[in-house]
Amino acid sequence: xxxxxxxxxxxxxxxxxxxxxxxxxxxxxxxxxxxxxxxxxxxxxxxxxxxxxxxxxxxxxxxxxxxxxxxxxxxxxxxxxxxxxxxxxxxxxxxxxxxxxxxxxxxxxxxxxxxxxxxxxxxxxxxxxxxxxxxxxxxxxxxxxxxxxxxxxxxxxxxxxxxxxxxxxxxxxxxxxxxxxxxxxxxxxxxxxxxxxxxxxxxxxxxxxxxxxxxxxxxxxxxxxxxxxxxxxxxxxxxxxxxxxxxxxxxxxxxxxxxxxxxxxxxxxxxxxxxxxxxxxxx
Length: 283
Known about the structure:
47% of the residues lie in helices and 20% in strands. By secondary structure, the chain is α+β, with helices and mostly antiparallel strands. α2 (14-25) packs across α4. It has 13 helices and eleven strands. The model is unreliable at 269-283 (pLDDT under 50). The strands form two sheets. The chain has an eight-stranded mixed β-sheet with strand order 4-10-9-8-5-6-7-11. Strands 1-3-2 form a three-stranded antiparallel β-sheet. It folds into two domains: 6-81, Orthogonal Bundle (Arc Repressor Mutant, subunit A), CATH 1.10.10; 91-281, 2-Layer Sandwich (Endonuclease, Chain A).
């Protein structure tokens, strides 16, 4: 048997839930509620009565408004629903990937990724970046990225975009830095001479690849993780978002890793980079 309390009143009715969040904005008449939610009075009146019964809503003249209890419930109920939405919308992604690299405070705020979707590369393009990722890099004004995997294509891509006035901040592992220094020293030197480019070395274990970008027409967020079954990076499935919420999630996550990283001094000649790398070995 269903409970008659606040939980069941909100859980078992989408209309009651929508009315609660609508009244969170301001008091409204029943006509305004019907028009906004596109429902009939025969649907809204019983729902409002049920919300009144559990002291979430009260009537004041012609308007309905939230009680102090209703305001508290609305504020706390919305994040819970957003979290559920975020997990259910991309459930396979979350279940099948290793989240241990993501700090608990960020795991507890997956609600910010509720509008993200998983993008899968075509099987014959598993060694390439997602088209959405590349398109946004080309059109970006500011790029922030963290990665524990290396794709040679990124060297060309980031070197090309760094010739413009865009700002680039990259956090990479010591292993990736060593490989770039060995095989792409010319490109690395070019990036380090660019005042708009910053490269950081993360010396601890890092099992993630993500980026945030300010683009001309909005924002972009991309997240890649390691497969929990194989232990290998999943280069086919990325979670991507274009809303401000996912972008800010990525921005704060970038700052978390940046605080634990060491920046490579800019403008150093290759010989000095070798010395700098030797110092990193002892960190």
